[in-house]
Amino acid sequence: MNVLALSRRVIARDWRPGRAAVAGLMATVVYSIAMEGDMVLFDNPFSDVRFIEGLLERRRRSKTFFLLAWIIHLLNGVALAEIYAAVAKHFLPGPNWLKGTIFGEVFVASVWWLTPLADKYHPLIKEGEMPHLANWKSFSHNLVRHLAFGVTLGLLYK
């Protein structure tokens, strides 16, 4: 089977990149609200934006790197939404909200094996400014955050 034939089978014919991008952006906003709520309600010091910011510039906190970290965070959500819309949604069972939920939770579960690497090499985690990620508490918090993302994505990208 050639690449073109394979891509026709894998990529959804009804994929709408613009709609997926908007849905991903909105889902990331909802995720970010859940993240901020999680940080306040459960005294969870982990922020995805600060994590990204620490990869960009760890010594000084500047408005430029803070803004850039937010943009990368939002673009990451858009990229995930494009993968969902172009490929994953087509293969997932159930109504849209369930498809989005499965996608968000499977994403977390599939990348979680990388957390020991983050714990070992991320500058802010090594310096103790951010908490370690490779633990069940952090995993459960991320499941909740990605649940918010997934449900929103599933509901918005129909």
Please outline the major beta sheet. Answer: none
Query: What's the pLDDT, averaged over the residues?
Result: 92
Number of domains: 1
- State the end-to-end distance: 30 Å
Percent helix, as a range, is over 70%
> N-to-C SSE series?
HHHHHHHH
Give start-end ranges of low-pLDDT stretches.
none
Spatial extent as radius of gyration: 17 Å
Strand content: under 5%
Q: How many β strands by DSSP?
A: 0
Continuous helix count: 8
Structural class: mainly alpha
- What is the global morphology? globular
Task: Write up this protein.
The chain has 158 residues and is an all-alpha fold. The chain has one domain (23-156). It contains 8 helices and no strands. The chain has helices at residues 3-10, 17-41, 48-56, 63-91, 96-111, 115-121, 123-126, 136-156. Helix 2 (17-41) crosses helix 4, helix 2 (17-41) runs antiparallel to helix 8 (136-156) and helix 5 (96-111) runs antiparallel to helix 8 (136-156).
Descriptors for this entry?
globular, 75% helix, mainly alpha, 158 residues
Q: What's this, in brief?
A:
The chain has 158 residues and is an all-alpha fold. The protein has helices at residues 3-10, 17-41, 48-56, 63-91, 96-111, 115-121, 123-126, 136-156.
Which helices and strands, and how do they pair?
Elements: H1 3-10, H2 17-41, H3 48-56, H4 63-91, H5 96-111, H6 115-121, H7 123-126, H8 136-156
Helix pairs in contact: 2-4, 2-8, 3-4, 5-8
